[in-house]
Known about the structure:
It is built from 3 helices and no strands.
Amino acid sequence: xxxxxxxxxxxxxxxxxxxxxxxxxxxxxxxxxxxxxxxxxxxxxxxxxxxxxxxxxxxxxxxxxxxxxxxxxxxxxxxxxxxxxxxxxxxxxx
Length: 94
């Protein structure tokens, strides 16, 4: 149980960071939000890969990891487009 949680955090951090590198431009997101997006993308990607039968292969599960990364990129785009990043008040300054 503890190993699975630590694994999800590590994979989530890697997937979230890679997604931010792939998305063009500056993303105004905190490291914690990046981690959350990465963890959620990793968990959803794993569930989809298991349902499709792609998660139990010999060696590295490349399809699962690519799916996780694609979901993380979508998550980063959604978070930045919705303005859920860091410190947006919604007010315009004059």
